[in-house]
Amino acid sequence: MRSQKALAFKGTVFVMKADLKTGPVLVLELNELCPPILERMIAADQLPNFKKLRDSSEVFVTHTDDPTLEPWVQWPTFHTGQPESVHGAAELDEGHLIKPARVWDTLAESGVESVVFGSMNADAKRKDRVFLVPDPWSANVTPSDASYEAFHKFISFHVAEHTNPNAKPTSADAMNFMKFMLGHGLSLNTVTTAMSQIAGEKTASGDRKWGRALVLDWMMWDVFAKTWKKRRPQFATFFANSTAFLQHRYWRQMDPDSYQVKPSEEDVRNYGSAIEDSYRHMDRIVGKAFDLVGPTGRIVLATALSQQANTQYEHIGGKFVYRPHSFKDLFQWAGGPQPVSFEPVMTHQAWATFQSEAAAIEAEATLAALQSNGKTIMEWRRTANRIMFWCGLISKTGPGFEVTNAKNGESTSFEELFMLVGQVNNSKHCRDGAFWVQSVDGSAKRHVDKLPLEHAYGLMLDMFSDQTASKVAAE
C-alpha cells in the first residue's frame, strides 16, 4: 500500500500520496502586470500565449487590503496566505524575518519538491525540498546552491545599481557570471537578443537602453529553465520585474493624455512603446513556460498588484527622485556612526547596516541633520541596526541649491552629494492584480467577484489536492 501524508489547511486535511503522479505547476510571478492592459492587448491579438493561458484558466482579479502597497509586502501575502499584519514584511530584504510558512514550505511537508526562483522576499524552511534562488534585492538570504552565488551577485548588482552611472561590476564578478551562464543554460536566443540590444543602442536614433531589462529577464529564464530540467520540481515559481520597472518609468510616455505635464515628442518616440513591448516580451516567456511544463503541467499567472497612472504630483511638474553619488561619501560628509555596509534596493533607496542598534539610532540624528532651509532633506525607516534611507526631495532643484549639515554648520552644493535620477514614478501601485489558474481539463471560468490576495495561497494548494489527494473533513 502506498504511504500517505496529511496536509492541514483551514479546517481541511488533504491526504497526499507520497509518489505524486501529477504534472508540475509553474507559477509565473510577472510583477505588477495590469489586467486592463492584458485584456486590451489580447483583444488586439498581440498576446497569443496569454490568450491561450487565460482561455484555459480560472481567471481572478485579486485585491489586497494590506495597509502598505508595495510588491515586497504583497508577494509575502500571496506566498503565505496571511496579510501584512501577520507576516510582518514591510521592506525589501526581509524574507528571512517572515515566520508564516510559504506555499512551498507547506507543500514540502507533504513531500513536494519545489524550485523558487527570484520570488520577492522569499526564504525556505525545508531546505531539503525547496531549491531557492533569492530575489535580486536580498542580501540576507543566499542561494541553496553556492555555485549560484556568482549569478545572484551579478544580477543583484545590475538591478540595484541601474541608476548609478558610476557603478561597474568587477572583472572577476563579470567573469564568474559568464562562466556560470555558460554552464547553466545560456541560450543562443539570449545571446542574439543581447547582441541585437547592444547594436540597437549604437545605431538607433533615440534611447533604447530600456531594452536591457528585457535581456536580463532572458538570462534569468535560461538559468531557471536549466534548473527546472535538472531538478524536475513538482512546484516552481519564476519572478520577472521588467514590466513593473518600465511601467513606473514610462507610463506617461505610453498614455500622455492622462497627464497635465506632457512628455516631449522625443520622449514619446523613445519610450512610448516600451511598456507594450514588455508585455509582448512577457508573452514570449509564457510561451516558453508552456513548452517547459509540457502537456501535463499547469501554469499559474500571478501579478500580486498592478499599476495605474500617477497624477498626484502634476501640480509640481511630476515626481522626481535623487540618489547619492556615493552612499559612503554621503555618510562620511554627514559624520556620525558609519555603516558597515550598504545594500542598494530600489531606484534611489538603500539599506545602511550598522554595527549595533545604538549606532543606527545615532545615525538617524545624522540623517535628520542634512537640511535645506532648516528642514531635513532625508527620509528613512529603521529596523534594529539597519536603516532604509533616501532623499526626500521630489521636485527639481534649482542652480545653487545647497545642503547644510546642522551638526557642524558646513554647507555644500546639493549636486556634490546627489544626482538626479529622473521622473521615475509616472505610475503608482494599484490594489488589483491578475491571478489565473490553469484548470485540469482546460476549461475557462471568469470570476466576477474580486479574490482577496491571501486566498490565492489556498487555491495553489488545491491544485495539488485535486490531482493527488482526497479531501477528508478535519476533526
TrEMBL record:
<dbReference type="InterPro" id="IPR017850">
    <property type="entry name" value="Alkaline_phosphatase_core_sf"/>
</dbReference>
<protein>
    <submittedName>
        <fullName>Uncharacterized protein</fullName>
    </submittedName>
</protein>
